[in-house]
Amino acid sequence: MGIPVGHCRVSLLGHLGSSEQFDTSFWTLGGADIADTDAMATAIATAFLANDTHIKNLMDASCGFDELRVYAYPGGGPTADHVSTAPMAAAGTNASINQPYQSAVVCSLRTGFAGRSRRGRMYFPNRSLPAGSTGLLTAATVNTVADDLAAFFTAVNGIALTSGGNPSVVVVSQTHSDSQIVETVAVDTRPDIQRRRANKIVIPAPHVATVT
């Protein structure tokens, strides 16, 4: 069990309005050769910046994406053989702040197979888009985020690798030590939180009132 041979984990890193940082990632099959990863990091960053219009609109201008990292596992896991980085400056474009730092839009990466180990998840911070009277985001909002992410993945699948061929966006199952190609992207109208990030948010000292 573990990370299978020849895969890369691609991380999109950014910041929120305070000192908080976020990191959301996906996997590719292909591109793990050291000859590929530097060029692939730059190409993936370029593809994201070309397809991030509605993802950026989830955040206000105090937030944004900063860097892309590619962790390459040519021989499998658990440790990456090498890491490539590329700048990816993209500030949020929304003027509003309506959500706490831990609020996120959840994107499900679906393969042609059933089961939790055959699906992936990405969390994009949502600082700006408010929920409606139902407590849910609008369908129009999540549709455009899903379309942007699907177009981004399609562009990643089309990158020409130095070693030949193209990478494929996949879901890696460390339980089964294999991967499956992502076929669709689904975005839920229900806001969620990425709990690992929420647990790291710095909380200032609360006001304490005395009960007599």
How confident is the prediction overall: mean pLDDT? Answer: 90
**From the alpha-carbon coordinates, what is the Rg to the nearest angstrom?**
18 Å
What does the largest sheet look like?
6 strands, antiparallel
Structural class: alpha+beta
Share in β-strands: 25-35%
Overall tally of domains: 1
Intertermini distance: 59 Å
> What is the succession of H and E elements?
EEHHEEEEHEEEEH
Write up what this structure looks like.
It is a single chain. By secondary structure, the protein is an alpha+beta fold. It has one domain (7-198). It has 4 helices and 10 strands; from the N terminus they run ββααββββαββββα. It has helices at residues 34-49, 53-56, 139-157, 195-198; strands spanning 7-15, 21-29, 64-73, 82-91, 103-110, 119-125, 168-173, 178-181, 184-187, 192-193. The strands form 2 sheets. Strands 4-3-1-2-7-8 form a 6-stranded antiparallel β-sheet. Strands 5, 6, 9 and 10 form a 4-stranded antiparallel β-sheet that branches. β1 (7-15) and β2 (21-29) form a beta hairpin. The chain starts with 6 loop residues before the first strand and ends in a 14-residue tail after the last helix. The relative contact order is 0.23. The mean pLDDT is 90.
